[in-house]
Amino acid sequence: MSEQAGEGSKLWGGRFSAGTDPLMESFNASIHFDKRMWREDIEGSKAYAVAITKVGLITEDECEAIRNSLDGIALEWELGHFKLQPSDEDIHTANERRLKELIGTTASKLHTGRSRNDQCSTDMRMWLRAQIKELRKHLVDFMQVCKSRAELEIDVLLPGYTHLQRAQVVRWSHWLLSYAWPMKRYVEQLDEIAARVNVMTLGSGAIAGNAFGVDRQALAKDLGFASVCENSMDATGDRDFVAEFLTWSSLVMARLSKWAEDLLLYSSKEFGFVSISEMYSTGSSLMPQKKNADSLELIRGKSGRVFGHSCGFLMTLKGIPSTYCKDLQEDKEMMFDTVDTMSATTQIATGVLSTLTIDSSKMRAALSPDMLATDLAYYLVRKGMPFREAHSASGSAVALAETSAIPLSQLSVEQLKTISDLFEADIAAVWDYEHSAEQYSSSGGTSRAAVLEQIAKLAAWLA
């Protein structure tokens, strides 16, 4: 093949006379990753064939030949029989090249009025739209497990931690639900993103629009889009929908990383609160005794990968002028990898949570009287002492217990009276962990009734 002929086989080769440097061919090509959108590219082309038939650019017979042949190409992709050629720069080039092999010059009419700028954006939106539906299901599955375990294990108490130090008594169910509620927010955010993704850019051309009067509203309906973009210049260079998805993914991964870190701590021998199933654990090549929760460590680690895609893509966007520039080819690998990472992570997280076992006795044994210092202050508040004074008095009691080398709960009434005359024999009721949890009965609290209320609300939303 001559250099000129080689350039002519490209969708853009007509004005070039010299061949492309082979390294540039490789540097420029995206087929090795954007072939994932073969289905969307074919569906978009089939719908576009109908659209240009309606305005007389191709005949009904030509339209039928194009659509039938595209169905055949789809089957080749489906069965793994599609053969890529060195000239296939991207998925759009590959499919059009194959179409021309099947039906000849009629294939050359399909791209009339269409640019890869609007074609690529449309393919990406269709692909991401489908992936969002799957990701939404995975998040809901995680929430379902949180809810189910919260119902079954509602009577289990454990320390709640702030600054990684024991803070107050909470229910294990309360901890579980503390990760279900953020997922609800993320699902709601994802629904909003999905609506913005579901806007069709096809028919925008390279920059100025479509010159042949194509009915974009009908085209959008055929492809399942809710609406069309309102400005062709905005449409061809817009990747806000990718940036927004990457940012959303970063938020979800940050939350799951936090969740994974909690469980890594809880599953350590130092805590012993939970045991991660062997289904989601690995061993050591040297130390036979090791059972590593690598599933959780990978969730934690992969969060940085997703953050990097989000930050990196924003850096790409901020450096380009309006409309399309080839920089935007970088969008796909970041989008694809983030979707893959999110899909795997959310499913693994659900698997880990649904199969782990808890040791309620160790959780209970980790509770300590000093965690009831706030309860001691509340006792005084209920006796009429202002909270700031009660807080100080409780702190003094903690200091007295420490200097006496005894637990806070073993201070006698006489010792406590040296701090405040409001202390009476009924202080004994404060040293009950169940009582401590039950006092937090306001909506959103950790009392049994408040947790059951959360469960009911979550169940209603999930239904």
Major β-sheet profile: 2 strands, antiparallel
Strand content bin: under 5%
Which series of helices and strands comes N to C? HHHHHHHEEHEHEHHEHHEHHHHHH
- Total strand segments: 6
* Unreliable spans: 1-8
Rg measurement, Å: 31 Å
Concise overview:
With 463 residues, the chain is mostly helical. It has helices at residues 3-8, 22-28, 31-34, 38-54, 60-79, 91-103, 116-152, 172-197, 216-222, 232-237, 240-267, 294-318, 330-355, 360-365, 373-382, 387-403, 413-417, 433-438, 448-462; strands at 157-162, 165-171, 199-200, 227-228, 274-275, 357-358.
Question: Topology of this protein?
Answer:
Layout: H1 3-8, H2 22-28, H3 31-34, H4 38-54, H5 60-79, H6 91-103, H7 116-152, E1 157-162, E2 165-171, H8 172-197, E3 199-200, H9 216-222, E4 227-228, H10 232-237, H11 240-267, E5 274-275, H12 294-318, H13 330-355, E6 357-358, H14 360-365, H15 373-382, H16 387-403, H17 413-417, H18 433-438, H19 448-462
Helix pairs in contact: 4-5, 4-7, 4-9, 5-6, 7-8, 7-13, 7-19, 8-11, 8-19, 11-12, 11-13, 12-13, 15-16
What does the model show?
- By secondary structure, this protein is mainly alpha-helical.
- Helix content is 61%, strand content 5%.
- It contains 19 helices and 6 strands.
- It has helices at residues 3-8, 22-28, 31-34, 38-54, 60-79, 91-103, 116-152, 172-197, 216-222, 232-237, 240-267, 294-318, 330-355, 360-365, 373-382, 387-403, 413-417, 433-438, 448-462, and strands at residues 157-162, 165-171, 199-200, 227-228, 274-275, 357-358.
- The protein has a two-stranded antiparallel ribbon with strand order 1-2. It has a two-stranded parallel sheet with strand order 3-4.
- α4 (38-54) runs antiparallel to α9 and α7 packs antiparallel against α8.
- The termini are far apart.
